[in-house]
DNA sequence: TTGAAAGCGTTACCAC
DNA sequence: GTGGTAACGCTTTCAA
């Protein structure tokens, strides 16, 4: 049985192709009887409207691009993807994924060489900076660009961002309020392209500087090389400090969780010996009872997608740029700290 | 600047649309000089070949469907997706994702109602059984179906499956060889649709039965309700047994990891007090030093995608059905067990 | 309520 | 090496 096209269905149902088309796209314009007949025939012939033809005719592609740094397999990227998908799929759009757009070269390649221009209805950019000139290329051909956790940057039609800087400042403030004074911030070295996550470092620094007017804070930023071993690198860096800190601020849970688990093997037990807070509230954070800053990339993906849909539809946005805040989730790895009373020899 | 189509480019470059088309699809047929001219104009006009038109003309859709049970956010599904993507994206295909195809209803909806028939070039089915009749619907219109970790079932053009049953039997055998005799298998209740993962239970049972001829094995299957709380349910079930087991076999790492972490809080320390093995080698398994069975869904996705590409291309497969085996990864949570010597009062 | 026909932007065959 | 032209399968005005 060869594939049936709209003509075959029309013929078999004794109607014109116009009627077949309407039966699927605007059924209310077709009489109930005709509609039933057409549907019955279509079902029998395994017929369905061709999306390619519809797309060509309509000028839309029913496809959006999602650009991300690194792999989709990271927690943040997966959640973001799933959030976008949850809105775009029901709306009839597929997501064309472009991973590892994390160097100026790959990014440039995307914006110029790849057959994207005119071939997606919108572009999502997750977690990295974009060049205003590149944004302009898309705008010239009326392709909306929406950013998710993008650094402040020109040329995006809409953005949904978490306030990384403020979030990390909150986490740091929390540790200071608990009485911690010797605090280390562990993080991966900053990415080449201004990933939004690097703003967290500044949040930590700000909070420490602010507190210095009131307390004697001993703080330190401990960057380690990016890569699969970053948690072990941080572990090593911590264990080779002159003095082990009484609190650790982690750039992300994926750093904090291994640290909690492995520091225990070296005799550093949280919250008994030190406090630690993460950032993300990603898988297993609750299992190990990690105090952390929660963000919800799934929801950010949803919001971004809703904006994209409006933009595709030509509607204006009431709030093109949204900022959401990370929430402190107090759990068991951060506890009040009794400041050591320096030993005073008998007077 | 209005969107330029192929005619605009042809005109501006002083050539015919045929030449413009060839410049992009078969550049070797166009003289270097003409080609350069066309490309220059195309770039200036932001022109690119329309995928929709190409798709319509070619009869292909450059789109494949991926059906999965549950959410893409699970480790297995994300890895599978990423593996398929790593092959299909460079080949010019987008993935249209259908999640939660895990009840007969949603599955039926997919195969009949949704505008899929004739709108994808191939279908991937991950981790659940499919009805031969439904498979036949696709085959009738020449859409290849490729299964990943699908239970043995008719009608799939190709499959890449892990041997779940054998894998879990291996894990169980390992525990028995270590000297464990009181073994519990923790798992989620079987899915309605015959998820491939349920075969693992049988592997456990087989290994125990086999060993009974040689040893006095006290084994038990402990199913708990599916859902987000399944790990805690398993924990509760374990803690309320008459006697705590000396070994635990887990259906998956996502069950094993919380168990290792939380059982410790109740005084059951591995490997001191009991052994435990997981299945998957998913994130943090290495961090907590979990002995587990490794599978590689990313690679299975890749293999499945390679097969799909061949099938789309009309080529026959040398090995349509592949089975891979899970590898035992011995780490720190399973250790030799000294069988308790029953206490004998002084004679 | 239905049908006829134009056209969406390509590709590929056939001339030249 | 290049150009003209007929499809590909649909949507949508316009008429009936």
TrEMBL record, chains A, B:
GO molecular function: DNA-binding transcription factor activity; transcription cis-regulatory region binding
PROSITE patterns in the record: HTH_LACI_2 (PS50932)
This protein's UniProt keywords: DNA-binding, Transcription, Transcription regulation
Residue stretches making up the HTH lacI-type domain: 6-58
Claim: RNA-binding is one of the keywords in the record: no
Pfam families: LacI (PF00356), Peripla_BP_3 (PF13377)
InterPro entries attached to this UniProt entry: HTH_LacI, LacI/GalR-like_sensor, Lambda_DNA-bd_dom_sf, Peripla_BP_I
Residue ranges the record marks as coiled coil: none
Ribosomal protein listed as a keyword: no
PANTHER family in UniProt: LACI-RELATED TRANSCRIPTIONAL REPRESSOR, TRANSCRIPTIONAL REGULATORY PROTEIN
Protein name: LacI family DNA-binding transcriptional regulator
Organism: Bifidobacterium avesanii
Source organism phylogeny: Bacteria, Bacillati, Actinomycetota, Actinomycetes, Bifidobacteriales
